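Appendix C: a fully annotated inverse folding record. The material below is reproduced so that readers can follow the format used throughout the book. The structure is listed first as tokens, followed by the designed sequence.
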């Protein structure tokens, strides 16, 4: 069992930046994949970004060149740096991880990001 705790959400104006953090209760150095999803009101949860144990990253098209996922193995923490935020980025952001390719996803409780003037 892996516990994930997100932080860093809040209210920001369009064009602003936020950095989300996700602290894991276990070592992340060899985790198969970690990532961020988001869910806006009335919409399905969507994948935002992932990072593998080899530090390979992947992004949904709508956030490419604006968001950056990274990890600090020493701190067992994954980050999502979000720049040039838009109102359509407003959502609850969830951290997730999978220990192995065949294992289930673990989820954090989510952190609210609101982009509004």
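Designed amino acids, in order:
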């Amino acid at each position: 069992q892996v516990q994930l705790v997100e932080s860093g959400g809040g209210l920001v104006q369009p064009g602003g930046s936020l950095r989300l953090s996700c602290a894991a209760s276990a070592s992340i150095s060899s985790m198969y994949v970690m990532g961020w999803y988001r869910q806006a009101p009335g919409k399905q949860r969507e994948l935002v970004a992932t990072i593998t144990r080899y530090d390979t990253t992947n992004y949904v098209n709508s956030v490419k060149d604006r968001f950056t996922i990274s990890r600090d193995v020493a701190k067992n923490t994954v980050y999502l740096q979000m720049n040039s935020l838009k109102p359509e980025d407003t959502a609850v952001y969830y951290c997730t991880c999978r220990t192995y390719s065949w294992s289930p996803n673990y989820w954090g409780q989510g952190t609210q990001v609101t982009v509004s003037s």
